[in-house]
Design goal:
With 181 residues, the chain is mainly alpha-helical. It has helices at 6-33, 39-68, 74-98, 105-114, 138-180.
């Protein structure tokens, strides 16, 4: 077998670091919940996040070079850019988790839209329960789900009214064109 290209090895290493960092953050959170010291894990996590940042920067540089020198097609460049973007999103999520912040809603929404299973990304059903829902009872969870659904419905209503307005404008433009013709 021929050796794997450097960028593929770098990508796999970055995915592995992201996975290990997520596990260390979960372990640190368990320690904190149990009142144990997590200083050593914090140092390891900080180092891993820096390593992940460096690897993603290298991947971005390699990709930019490959696209600009036409070593790869534009379509392949776009595919690889999506992989790097996913890695950058994962890095931001890990950074937020490390700082005990929840991921931004945009990050959550974008992860919903990526679809499919990707190498190096953990199955979300196997992760521990989030801090946001931990300790909530069934009724509290149901109420939280209703609130989220209401927010989504409000967003869909706004989108619907925008699309409806654009449809109306399109029809009016079409009528005006017919009249002018």
């Amino acid at each position: 077998l021929p050796p794997l290209p450097r960028r593929l090895l770098l990508y796999d290493a970055a995915c592995q670091i992201a996975q290990e960092t997520a596990e260390k953050i979960q372990e640190r959170n368990r320690y904190q919940r149990n009142g144990e010291s997590s200083a050593k894990l914090n140092v390891i996590i900080r180092s891993s996040l820096q390593n992940l940042r460096e690897k993603t920067d290298q991947l971005k540089d390699l990709l930019l070079r490959a696209v600009s020198t036409h070593q790869i097609t534009q379509l392949e460049g776009d595919r690889r850019q999506n992989l790097v973007d996913d890695l950058l999103t994962r890095q931001r999520q890990l950074q937020a988790s490390y700082k005990n912040e929840g991921p931004e809603p945009d990050v959550i929404r974008s992860s919903l839209m990526t679809g499919g299973v990707k190498r190096g990304v953990t199955n979300p059903w196997l992760l521990e329960e989030s801090e946001e829902t931990r300790g909530l009872g069934f009724d509290d969870l149901r109420q939280q789900q209703r609130r989220i659904i209401e927010e989504q419905d409000a967003g869909l209503d706004a989108l619907s009214s925008i699309i409806s307005r654009q449809k109306q404008m399109g029809q009016e433009i079409g009528n005006e064109l017919d009249e002018q013709n």
